[in-house]
Amino acid sequence: MKVTTVGIDLAKNVFQLHGVNEFGKPVLKKQLRREQMAEFFVNLPACLIGMEACGSAHHWARKLQGFGHTVKLMAPQFVKPYVKTNKNDAADAEAICEAVARPNMRFVPIKNIEQQSVLALHRVRQGFVKARTAQANQIRGLLSEFGLTIPQGIGHIANRVPELLEDASNELPGSFRLLVQRLLDHLKALDAQVDALESQIVQWHRQSEASRKLEEVPGIGPITASALVASLGDAKNFDSGRQVAAWLGLVPKQHSSGGKHNLLGISKRGDSYLRTLLIHGARSVIHRAQQKPDACSWINGVVNRRHKNVAAVALANKNARIVWALLAHGREFRADYSTVKAST
């Protein structure tokens, strides 16, 4: 009987398949090795294929789409409730097959090769940034053991540490001076790596029309714009700007029951990297808005009523909605744009 829906439990070498027919009856339970995947699916009639959005999922989604299949990716936390028994590959594949057929399931947009390559630059750059921060903190901590303190901020490391190493009055051992100098050289190498990757990201940003369009929004620069374009892909996959804000975890988390609505802090779901970029960009806008009160009346009004952190999240939420409107409808950003209410 014809297979209409297939769930694939991805792995490094061994893939578990579970397929059902149009009536939902299991007709396929099979285990394939990596080298057998392409041969099997190229001969399988076109069907709906579901997979969890995990390692190599976008690669296999593109490959199976090339064979004529309809492929949908789902977040693992949305698949877990459909696992009936203990966890194993066969149960996971069956749960994926069940989840992908649900009409209210939320799916992850499939990224193309260019989007993945740009996001790889962002991820590696972020890794170097974290390593650079850790290295700076290690240098600061080691020097503090000898009673030498450095002001907060990574920029003070490169300015103050060489002076402390050259100062003979602080009685630092010679071996320790060589050790700190080695750490300082490593810090400079990490800083150079961050700058090089940032240059590649900015170069891609300048070649992307959509990314340059987003840069016009206050609080969004080349790094944030390129990350948003590469992550969102086709913005029409989202029904509204609020869905994008919810996807980024910038909307309140609910704990409501019995008709009583209780809104908590932001949900912090989705991509924490994008959410961090948007919030940090909003902080810079708030800082500049306080210097020019008349230029940004909306955000200054929010700051006057609420805490700066709340205002930063509110502006990040607003920018996320603006990003969706610009990408989904092909519009240009206008600072003086306002919605027109229909006359009654």
Automatic annotation (TrEMBL):
<dbReference type="Pfam" id="PF01548">
    <property type="entry name" value="DEDD_Tnp_IS110"/>
</dbReference>
<dbReference type="InterPro" id="IPR003346">
    <property type="entry name" value="Transposase_20"/>
</dbReference>
<dbReference type="GO" id="GO:0004803">
    <property type="term" value="F:transposase activity"/>
</dbReference>
<feature type="domain" description="Transposase IS110-like N-terminal">
    <location>
        <begin position="6"/>
        <end position="145"/>
    </location>
</feature>
<dbReference type="GO" id="GO:0003677">
    <property type="term" value="F:DNA binding"/>
</dbReference>
<protein>
    <submittedName>
        <fullName>IS110 family transposase</fullName>
    </submittedName>
</protein>
<dbReference type="GO" id="GO:0006313">
    <property type="term" value="P:DNA transposition"/>
</dbReference>
<feature type="coiled-coil region">
    <location>
        <begin position="180"/>
        <end position="207"/>
    </location>
</feature>
<dbReference type="Pfam" id="PF02371">
    <property type="entry name" value="Transposase_20"/>
</dbReference>
<dbReference type="InterPro" id="IPR047650">
    <property type="entry name" value="Transpos_IS110"/>
</dbReference>
<dbReference type="InterPro" id="IPR002525">
    <property type="entry name" value="Transp_IS110-like_N"/>
</dbReference>
<keyword id="KW-0175">Coiled coil</keyword>
<feature type="domain" description="Transposase IS116/IS110/IS902 C-terminal">
    <location>
        <begin position="212"/>
        <end position="291"/>
    </location>
</feature>
